[in-house]
Structures are given as structure tokens and as C-alpha cells.
Amino acid sequence: VALGDELILGASVDTNTSWLARELLGLGIENTRTLVAGDDEADAAEALRLAFAAAPLVIVTGGLGPTEDDQTRHAAARVFSRELVFSDEAWQGVVAWFERRGTEIPAANRRQALLPARAQVLRNLTGTAPGFAIEEAGRLLLALPGPPAEMRAMFTDAVRPRLLARVQGGLAQRSFQIQGLPEARFAEEVGEWMARGANPLIGCSVKDGILSVTLRARAADPDRAQALADSRAAQFRERFQRYIFHEGPEPVEEVLGGLLIARRLSVSAAESCTAGLAAAQLARVPGISAVLGATFVTYSNAAKMEVLGVRAETLASHGAVSEQVVAEMALGAARRAGARAALAISGIAGPGGGTPEKPVGSVALGTAVDGRVETRLVRLPPTTRESVRAGAANLALVELLRRLLRGEGPA
Amino acid sequence: VALGDELILGASVDTNTSWLARELLGLGIENTRTLVAGDDEADAAEALRLAFAAAPLVIVTGGLGPTEDDQTRHAAARVFSRELVFSDEAWQGVVAWFERRGTEIPAANRRQALLPARAQVLRNLTGTAPGFAIEEAGRLLLALPGPPAEMRAMFTDAVRPRLLARVQGGLAQRSFQIQGLPEARFAEEVGEWMARGANPLIGCSVKDGILSVTLRARAADPDRAQALADSRAAQFRERFQRYIFHEGPEPVEEVLGGLLIARRLSVSAAESCTAGLAAAQLARVPGISAVLGATFVTYSNAAKMEVLGVRAETLASHGAVSEQVVAEMALGAARRAGARAALAISGIAGPGGGTPEKPVGSVALGTAVDGRVETRLVRLPPTTRESVRAGAANLALVELLRRLLRGEGPA
């Protein structure tokens, strides 16, 4: 259950419940229903009741702040027919937070120490709102703060260990990152492995051209769960080998960034349609500064020539979206930045600019490693300008990663 | 109601319901409850029933695809006690979509033409899944496809006009983009204007340091609604004048990009911690290629010196995150790209790298217009590495926009 007028009225997107659903699935607990309601005690209480009608464990996020809007404590007290009482333990947590900040406690924050009677306090180390847990007659309610960073920290520190202790039997998980296979074809080829109730069960999410696949096996005996996962993972590997570029849950930039850092391989980028997305994605990786050289956004032909040294005649004979141009872009970026590796992207993001030979979604990708260039021309689904750009950035990172995995660019 | 195993299990975040809630609010319709359920007929039907228990209008997204998983048509038929029948009209839409693509229709797609009896078909021009509407006894169910691009197109084309025709009286809307005021202080200063039931009602969403504010007035008489909106807008303008950088719903890159294009003012960027985010954000604007010169990501000090000509002694005496360095970065980018305007960003995104004088979240921003430089040092909330980077990119765009709005850089 996610609570908040900002969620129900669309000012913010609720990312908490999907994060929690993934964490719970990792513990072998399947979310069966999500409810979102506004900052209103009756609505919130009704949402909690409807959630308990579907499952004995309910996690509620939001509504724990210091303002009149924040109704979770009242709603929980109502659902469990308890009084609200002032919790010294919760109050100590609020006091400690303000003391760490060296600021005075606003009077309103006293409300945050009001909890349903006999609720167990969940300490919040990253914010003011204390969480709480109520367990009664086989039902467990966990109330966590709404800000995602606070919610995640509290779940990880205080909730996850508690749930883990209750999970029956063993759970084993394997993850794969896949590129080059459309989702529909993947679903077809994976067939019954993805059916509900399958064990191991395969789950899959798609983002910007990359399929992230998780395989989860459950068994009463933990060793048996591991064996089930290993056996299905081996079958999976055999079936999808040519598309898998990484085993594990990490996104491509993390795997690529880790390899570049480990090999001390300096890297640059030359981006046209993605206009900085690939560099920004790579720069998410902490520690990347050790290897990330200058990168260049060269949107216009003039910029490609002046900054990267792409030749006018290459542009004229092959067009800006061509394997020849991205080859020169990649080499130019590497040279200009003094980097051993570089990637280059030039494509037609749309909505305009497509031609019969090169429709919207056409993207030329180039990579250079120690002066050796590889290029490809791909067609991404022309769904939106943003989806083409995000997909192109992702693909370029995968291209460079695949080369490093083949052993190019050793330390 | 959003349907899909990928949503309930956390593989994807549901962005459809919050988009729809905003659109509905624009029509004066308040969302009261959101439910998310998996790809299971009984769960989906139960979610529809619970939604109708809260409101007479229910919009369901997802579950209209061609696979066995897609249960919306079955659930809707069950809730309204109707048979599923093959709809020739829906089938013609599916056929037309494949014909436009020039590909054969897979046998599975025939399922998509099965609709509850007497449902009205909503044509899908951007995908295969037909939507449908069922109206009975004061209840209206609208079933839209799950992919956001398809859902949005169908809502805009087929649903919005239908709902608009039913909205009683007049609705007037004014929007403002605000920067420089923390959300909590905004909420304090806006006070009772934001209270539930206020008319005009003020809604606010915050993203990466920018507050997007919408003011909605309702009245039986449309002229009266306009007058109410104008009067509150005037008060709002007076109270928040120094923070407003744009009146309208457009995001900063669209306003800035539009001005740059209108003035034929060429632009470049030099980015350190944001590593391409600002350029990528600006490049979202269609037509930006006319003015977007080369831009540079210079993460390391070496790159700042070699590519942008930042002086070693400036870096040594003031540090990379300083007004002096971003001034040289902005001028260097403009010179290197041959652009009249440029922005520069250098900051500490964290988690490491903070110092007592320059903690995580410190960002130096520089702008250059026709050789004149302005700089600022700001402190963003150090929530996450990504939030600091996204906020810094946004702020840099706002800084340049404010200069253009003051009349700098005429065509």
C-alpha cells in the first residue's frame, strides 16, 4: 500500500511498491496486490483492509510525516482497533536525528512519535519519520516512510532480516543480462519456463533494449533449491548463449565500468543522437573518473568534422548515420581524448529525419579499442525519440563490453 | 487499475496511472484509488470490482496483448456479466496495423479482437491492442493498452474528448515553473491555496530541483472559471515572482531550446559531474540541431585543461568545483564549439568526494553568453548521486534560460 495525495493525483510516480515487490520476490514472497490511496484516514484504513483481504503481510509506505496530511498511524490504529500513544522510543529516534543535524526540533515533529499502542518501533537513521510494525492474529503490518531513500534503508536494515527469518525453506536466484533478442521472441523461446507456478520461475524485465532475466528456484531444502537453480541456469545458458552478455543483476554500465577500471582502460565517447546519454550512463559508476576521458557530443556535421576530424567526404558519401562515419567518430574521440577505447553513436531518433533506407530507429554504432574499430548498423523500434536514444546508448555500451569480454584491451 | 505481472512483481514501475491521474485532474476528475494486480483473471476482475466500489469511472491499463497472460477482456466480461465475442471492428484495426507495417499477422493476435459483447472499440493507431469502453448503469469502464506510448495516444485521441464532453461547467488551468525555493518552504508559503477542496486548487510536483505548479479553477460558468484562475494566478505571480522562470507546463529544456532556436543562438556545454546529462536534456527538443554545437564531458582535470583550456593554476588554487573553473569551462566550450552561448557544470555528486567547505551536493554553475560569464555556487540536497546530477543539469539550463529571458543573446 502506498499512501500520498501526490501519488493518487499523479504528481509523483510510486516507485516504492515496485522496489519492495522485487525485494520481496528475492525472499520468495510474491506481491499479490498493490493499492495506492490519498492522504485521508478513511481511505488509508480502507486500503489497509483491502490489502489484508488479499494477504497476511501488508507493507505500507508514506504518511508518516509530521503534518496533518500524514494519516498512516491513525489508519493503522483504526484497522487494529488500538489507541494512538506517545512512544518514548520513537521520540528518542526523532530527537537523535535532529541532534545529528544540529538543528532544533519543530513542534510539529512531536506527532511522529504517536504510534498505535504496542506497535514495535522501526528506527529511521536517514530521516525523521519512525516506522513501526504491528503483528496480531497472523497479520503483520509494516509501516515505512515514503521518501524512497529512507524507505529502502529501513527495509534493508530493519525489515529484510525479520522477513528472512520467516521464509520457509531455501530460495536460489540466478540473473542474466540479454541483448539482441526481441522480448516477444524471448517469451516464445523461453516458453513454459515462464509459466506461473513454474519452479524455477523465470521473470523478465525489458528496459531500453536490454532484457534482465531472473531465475528463482524454491525448495524445502536450501541445497535442493541451489541445485534446481543451477540446472535450469545451465539449460538457459545453452539456449540463449549468444545473447547473454552478463550473468548477474548488474546493469551494463556497471559491468563495463568495472572492467574498464579493473583494466585501467581509458575510455571516450562521441555521441550524435544520444547527445551525452551514453557518457552520463557510464558516469553513474562510482570510481569511473579513473578512466573516463573527455567525451564529445557532436550533433551537427560541422561539429563531427571540427571536433572529431570526421572527413567531409565520408559524410557526403555515406551520410551521418553510417558505419563509416561512426568509425571515424570513434577513432577521433579516442585520439582527441587520448583514450585507448571509445564508442560512437549516430542515429535517427525521430520523429522526423527517417528515409526509406534509413528509417527512424536506424542507429550506427562504432567502437574502437587500441585503434581497432568495429561498427554495426542496427534498427531499434521507433517507439519514441527518447526510447530510440536510450536504446542506442545502451547498445553502444553493450558493444564495447562484448569486445572487452572477448579479451580485447587487456590491462 | 494497472494490470500486469511485471508491475505486481516489480519488474516494471507503473507510470501509466500517475500520467492518467494528472490528465484526469486536468479535466477536473480526481483519482480516488489506484489498484495494481497481476495477469490473472480472478485477480483482475476483483481489482475492477474494488475500483468500481470507489468510483463510477474506472480506467484499466494493460492486459490487452495477444498472449494467454492478457486477461483484461475476460475480467471485464466477468464484471459486467457479458460474453466475449469476436469484434470485426477490432479485428480490422489489428489487420490495418500489420498492413501498415507490411508484416504478416501472427495467429495469436486474433485473440485481440475478442471483446465483451456490446463493448465500444477504441482504435489503436500506435500498436496492435484495441482498447474498449463499456458503459452500463452509471458505470464506465475504459480499457487501454499497457505500453505507455500506446496508452497515451489512445487516451488523447479517443478518451479525453469523450470525458471532456461530460465534465460539468468550466475548468481553467494555469501553470508555473519555479526554481530556487525548497518544496517545504513553497508548501508553507502557498498555505491554504493548496488545501483539499480549495478552488482554485494548486497542485505541485517536484523533479530534480524544479517545482512544476498547476492551478485549476472550476465553476459552473466557464468564464467564471477563467476569472477565478486569472485572479489566483495574479496573486501567485506576486508572491513567487522571483522564483518563476516560466509560465506554462513546458519543462525547462523545451523553453530554453525554443528560445535558442528562435534567436538562432548557438550553444555548447562543458560538463563534469553531470557527464552529458545537460546536453542530453537539451537534445530532447526537436529542431535543436539547428543551434546545438559540440558539447564536452570533461570529468578529469586533464580533460578540462586539454579540451577546454582551463588553466592548471585555476584548478590548483580554486579546485575543480569552483566558480573560477566553471567560468573557464564555459568560455572554453563556447570557443571550442564556436558557439555564442555555453553552460558549464562541475560538482560533487557523491557518495564520496565531499569536504567540510564543499560537501556532497556542492555544484558550480557557469554560463557564457557572447563572452560574458556568470557563475554561481549552489548546494543541492545530497540525496543520491543521481539526484545531484539531475538537479545540477536542470539548474544549469535554468541559469542560461534566465539570462536569455533578461534579454541577453538577441537574434
Helical residue percent of chain A? 25-40%
Structural class of chain A: alpha/beta
Give the integer mean of the pLDDT values of chain A.
91
Number of distinct helices of chain A = 14
Over all CA atoms, what is the radius of gyration of chain A? 26 Å
Mass-distribution shape of chain A: elongated
Biggest interface found: A-B, 79 and 79 residues
Low-confidence stretches of chain A: none
Intertermini distance of chain A: 49 Å
Percent of sequence in beta strands of chain A: 15-25%
Largest sheet of chain A: 5 strands, mixed
- The count of β-strands of chain A is 17
Q: Multimeric state of these chains?
A: homodimer
Side by side, the strands of the main sheet of chain A go 14-13-15-16-17
Q: How does this model look, in words?
A:
The structure is a homodimer of 411-residue chains. Chain A is of the alpha/beta class and 411 residues long. Helices cover 40% and strands 23% of the residues of chain A. The first copy, chain A, is built from 14 helices and 17 strands. The first copy, chain A, has helices at 5-8, 16-26, 41-54, 72-79, 88-101, 148-164, 183-190, 222-240, 252-263, 277-282, 301-308, 312-318, 323-337, 385-405, and strands at 2-3, 33-37, 57-61, 84-86, 114-116, 120-122, 131-136, 139-144, 170-179, 201-207, 210-219, 244-247, 267-271, 295-297, 341-347, 362-369, 372-379. Chain A has a five-stranded mixed sheet, sandwiched between helices. The first copy, chain A, has a four-stranded mixed sheet with strand order 3-8-7-6, with helices on both faces. In chain A, helix 9 (252-263) packs parallel to helix 14. At the A-B interface, helix 1, helix 2, strand 2, helix 3 and strand 10 of A face helix 1, helix 2, strand 2, helix 3 and strand 10 of B.
